[in-house]
Give the backbone structure.
Amino acid sequence: MTQNPFGQNQGQNQGQTHQNMHTGTVPPDMNHGGHELFDVHEVLSLSIAAMDQSTLLRQHAKDPELIDIMDRQYRFMRQEYNTLVDCFKTGQDPQVPTQSYKMAGGNDFIYGMTQTQPKKPMMSPQELDDAAISGFLLGSAKASATGKTAAALETTNPVVRRVLADSVPNCIEMAYELSIYQNKHHYYQVPQLADTDMQAILNAYAPATGGQQPGMQ
């Protein structure tokens, strides 16, 4: 069995026999439900769109830091796409298991708002800049996280389900890296509540107490 970076087996489908009540034994490559087929189809299409978008936008990026992020994320997305295609087509362990994406920089956010020009749609392709490019990539990463989560909840094949579930944190990490980049360059600002309001919310919950579930003897 292959091990994913989160310490759980991806090879949950090895050696198992699945049945269809009408046709009998289900071979590994057909071990997929209808909802799963449609949802994973959407995930793979979304992955291709994200990579194609990155390919088209890369030539317009100017900041070396953004170009480095784009290149690293593209290579990771391509391998993750191949891993999902592999297990989706075979119904079994992929040859290359799910990896874990690592950001290159820190995770410090700058809080607070400053006055900026109001945003509005571009009027010409010449207005495309690093702020817009990083925003497009951030939107794709968020959409991938949402799509993979929804697909994992509908997937019956245990290997495909685990590959999808393990890839969601990678989408979140890539989105986080892009949001940090945007925040550093003031493309994306993060407001904070007043101290009293923040403390009120932070202290609105207390730990659960008791040794067993209520109602149990």
Notes: The mean pLDDT is 86.
